[in-house]
Predict the structure.
Amino acid sequence: MKTPVILSIVGVVILVGIAVAFSLYNKPHRQAGNAAPDLKVKATELYAMYTADESKADSLYLDKVLQVEGIVKEILTNENGDKVLMLESPELFGISCSMADSQSKDLSAVKVGAPVTVKGICHGMLMDVVLVKCVLVER
Amino acid sequence: MKQPLILFLCFCAFSFAEAQGKYFTRTGHISFYSKTPLEDIQANNRQVASVIDFSTGEMVFSVLMKSFEFPKALMQEHFNENYIESDKYPKSTFKGKILNIQTVDVQKNGSYPVEVEGELTIHGVTKPVKSNGTLEVKENKIYGKSQFTVAVADYNIQIPKLVRDNIAKNIDIQVDMVYEPFKQ
């Protein structure tokens, strides 16, 4: 009598295990688009924080979804055709915002010299502070 | 944490010197491939910062490890958390020199084979590397390409036994840059 019960429990455990493994294996990439921002910050302020003390800035911003407001300095297209918005800072470099795939095609609302608000995941600083998977936020 | 400072100092030097001869990119592409009979894995980073100073032949590359994108989110997580430990070692850098810089004429369209030598830092470990590549000058832009291989073990990267057969011992690295003249 006990064997079928045990067998079916084992079966269920295996099935659940497979389902969990499968969903973990296929879990989606993190997106900034549908997440509420962890922090809101001005582009100039974010850049100033990173140039002043990188490790402190990392502890505040790294891996967070940031909503950043700033003036568009340049709209770049990388060799893959993806758009990158450069936000101005008082210095040579600034904030580079690699736009999410869903946004890369239509950036007609974005004008160089005009203010913009984007939301993206902060990956730290190279020459610029790097934000990825960025989406435009309605102003 | 010193790498951005180095990049920054490079640029400071540029602004005092003649801007001519310095090229840079902030959207360079580095990809790597791990090929095993069990699994092929590729990851792309399109936020690579790089500077070449054509007056001296010096070149610098800097990447944020978190910016490598994998086909699967789980792979990316394992890469960052377990293998490359990107919270501890957020950046990889290459600092080196184009040995035959005198053969490259940035004013003249054409494809120039180059030999590069320098030091590559990954996972906190610095090793000398040497590689060949090409610089193609076209309409005031410079297309830089190179390929080389790194051994995972050289950089003290521990791969758990369970997935050891899924990850190649030697990883192919592909570098694909479009440099623009540096103007202040």
The beta strands of chain B are 22-35, 40-53, 58-64, 91-98, 110-122, 125-138, 141-151, 170-181. The longest strand of chain B covers residues 22-35. The radius of gyration of chain B is 17 Å. Chain B touches chain A at residues 1, 3-4, 7-8, 11, 15, 24, 26-27, 29, 46-47, 49, 62-64, 66-67, 69, 72-74, 76, 90-91, 176, 178, 184 (CB under 8 Å).
